[in-house]
Specification:
552 residues, alpha/beta, Rossmann fold, 4 domains, six-stranded mixed β-sheet, five-stranded antiparallel β-sheet, globular
Amino acid sequence: MSVDTSRPSIQDGIATLVSEARSRESAMFTEAQAKSLLAAFGIDVPRGVQVSDGELIPEHLGESLVVKAISATLVHKSDAGGVRVGVSREQVAEVTDQMRKRLAASGHRLSGLLVEEMVPAGHEVIVGATKTPDLGWSVDYAFVALSAARVGEALLAAAGRVRFAQVIASGFGETEEGKTLEKTLVETVRRAGIRLIGPNCLGTHASAGRLSFIPDAPLTPGVTAVVSQSGGLSVDILRVGAMRGIDFHSVVSIGNGADVNAAELVASHLADDDVRVIGLYLESLAAAREVLDVLTTGEVRKPVVLLAGGRTSEGSRAATSHTGALAGNHRLWQAIARQAGMTLVDSLEDFASALHALSTIDLDIRSTGRQAILFGNGGGASVLGADALDRQGLSTSPLADSVIRQLDGLGLPPGNGLRNPIDVPAGTLAVRNGQVAEDMLKLVLAGSEPDILISHLNVGIIQRNLGESHGDVTGTIIDSIVHVRDEANSNTHHLLVLKTDGSQQTEELITGYAHRARSSGIPVFAAFEDAALAARAVLEQTHQGCEDDGRR
């Protein structure tokens, strides 16, 4: 169904557009809706339609055409090959196919098109801007979408009336010819009394303020604050993080960080009681050294996870062209992370796993070792879990013989492995409709004190084999884990792996179980590798807390 962007009726159209925007968590208009709203108030916009993928273009649109991709995850349409100008009607199908392929290569799905008539060149204006010279600081946050050459002049004219200016344009210090321009821009904003975010950035996502740089943004306020030198990766951090169960306090894309930099934001987050966990994506070793100084001299200690870009020679070269980060000895990243007490990770998925765990667990529990216990169904899965933990430097040492005898004394069905990993088939988990898990875990924690206890449940197998006869066994086990944790006087962190068989029914069950566990302070993961990485992050960061307590 096509959506005309030209002119809705004043009475019905505006109310509908506002209602639709309010129904979204982001409370934002789509581009087509925004233009339709402007048109309703008599402001000229290009004639166009929003159409579904494969839908015919209405005959009333004249050539030449501008074709823009629509995707829920797409922010930089041009960068992803999602904008074509000068398109004829006959070319639309071919252009659409090319866009679909280019977006898929970047991890986006084409859901539709915004097709508009090209308009002659003219002046770009900001509709609704006001000038209030008598109010002093009249603008807290200015979004500057001008070409690089015009930014300095515009900000100088705003001297004394703007607190923060976010500059999205590239073409500054990340290019050789733009270095002088960036230096001049910094001098200009300092003279103007303006703090600069960027340039070459997407800016700020603030959940409590309902401000974001992506459509349909996750806006539930949380305790995790992220600072990123990459705008595009900031989008991925928000999307992937939300899928992993992270509620963000903020995500700030600083780009080149010419003025407001990573170290300054880290210092602010350390002083902010609403922030419990800090994540960093950095490409510059110089920026990392500044963060190191803040973390080693600060009075407040919080968990920090570092995803570093440019840790190989080729990655370092790419970082230089991306944000102007100076190439250096990429082996220094590990040394800086170690000295600063940051957990260094290798991928976006690891970054999300670590942040999810640290933002969910009780950080007051301070473990001092690296011992782990695995509990769950599936012998092969238990072996793979032990391998994953070993790769992250955690040990799955056998339980004491006295604990094994107590477990054996529960009269469990045959077929269990009780030494660690504790391998219990579905038949055992069926005992007392899953409450046997509480009996077993109580004995384990009474006779040992692991630093990490990872429970892993194959939800598909458990519910398919036991659901009709024994009810919600998986839910009962999760409740048992929470109850045992709360009753035990131990320094053990609990993590949960929920495995799927790929069916839609199981996926829906896992979504509910994950929410249930996370609401009780237990991080949830889809794979052992994610849980093992998270376990390392938890132990590294809580060990830091113990060391700080010792120094005090």
